Amino acid sequence: MKEPEISVIVPVYNVEKYLCNCLDTILAQTFANTEIICVNDGSTDSSRKILEEYKNKDSRIKIVDKENGGLSSARNAGLKVAKGKFISFIDSDDWIDKTMLEKLYNSMTALNTDIAICAVHQYDESRQVIDDSNPYYTLGFFDETFDNRAFSYKDTKPFLMDVCVMAWNKLYRKSLIDECNAQFPDGLIFEDGPFFFSIFFKTTRVSIVRDFLYYYRINRKGSIVQKAGSQFLDIIDVAELMYNSIKQISDYEDVKYIFFRKKVEDFVYRFEHLNPKYKKAFMNKINAKSSLADDKLFPPDMVKGAFKYNYYLFCNIKRNSIRYYEFQKYKMKLMYKIMEIIYKENGFYYLKYKKHITKIKKNPNIFDIYYNNDKLHVSIIKKIKFKLPFKYSKLEKLNDND
Fold first, then answer.
1. Which one of 74, 123, 255, 381 is most buried, counting C-beta atoms within 10 A?
2. Where does residue 302 rank: exposed (0-12), middle (13-18), buried (19+ CB within 10 A)?
3. Residues with Cβ < 8 Å from 82, sequence gap 6 or more?
4. Backbone angle region of 119, left / alpha / beta, with phi > 0 → left and psi within -120 to 50 → alpha
5. Sheet holding 356-361, edge to edge
6. What is the mean pLDDT of the chain?
């Protein structure tokens, strides 16, 4: 029997509502020499029955049954039995264009690459619309110089942490996965980053296909990300695994700052959306386990000249006090509103609120406000003066444009 050229790995857990649509689009692929490995991760709904029905209709479908262990363990189980020269991961609540495998395969064979990446449509289930506004998924960070050629991570350093790490919009050469002994971290969510970077840093041959070939379902009711529960703390472990990969590369010193800035943004975003009852645990884990919290590895001097709101919040997360964090956050929001004063003409303030702008003549004898030396200077009725330490790049850009 002829061995499959591509192994498609589909982790399945309680997705009876979406599974048929996913499998139909995989079976309809214009590239037919495939095996479709469906890993039933202990489903308790009718997903297992659906898989059996599809297996009876098409011999390319293979079912692997296992106890529930999460997405990472399901993908790893599929990798163990995969026989194809190339690997594709498709999540069972998503679907794909019928030409996806063919176009990625053609890109890899024509350019002799180890990874091929395609653009992604985000399908917002709550609004039932396709959203193509995020360049992370649309390959918007790749300019035209990346078209029709092989490249390495070194070519992407200006936007390294904006390269989409998701497992499912790619085709991988299996020999590279085996060589890197790449695995998804068992028991963790946000698992794609460690897997991707463990192989992305080991190859000099990656290609992109700008066509939108993958449909990623977001805002799905019941998803782990929607719940924002204790598993959000996994982002700290995942960042450590990614950092371990970055430490191995020759230009670590150049890349670590890019990594730091992106992960700080991720930590703050997840912390802001986290169920409040887990926020203290998040703070504790940051300080106990995250290299990013180590000022010796990532000294504050690294952010001079590029201080951002997120870094300020991250520093307050490290203070390990929820009350202090919330106070500082609301103080910063107030300061940001003050910073919406736009200086465009000597002798006047331009006060902006949303789309409305009001022009007010300055009278320094009564009131004045200005920004200098990283401080907001406020003077009221001449005698009362105070300075508020604050630094925000958007204000600097506004002043630079005057």
1. 74
2. middle
3. 7, 9, 35, 37, 174
4. beta
5. 341-342, 348-353, 356-361
6. 87
pTM of the model: 0.82
Residues 361 and 348: their CA atoms lie apart, in Å, by 4
Q: Where are the domains of the chain?
A: 6-220, 232-335, 339-400
Q: What is the pLDDT of residues 90-128, one digit of tens each?
A: 999 999 999 999 999 999 999 999 999 999 999 999 889
Greater model confidence, 387 or 99: 99
Homologous superfamily (CATH) for 6-220 = Spore Coat Polysaccharide Biosynthesis Protein SpsA; Chain A (3.90.550.10)
Q: What are phi and psi of 317, to 5 degrees?
A: -65, -40
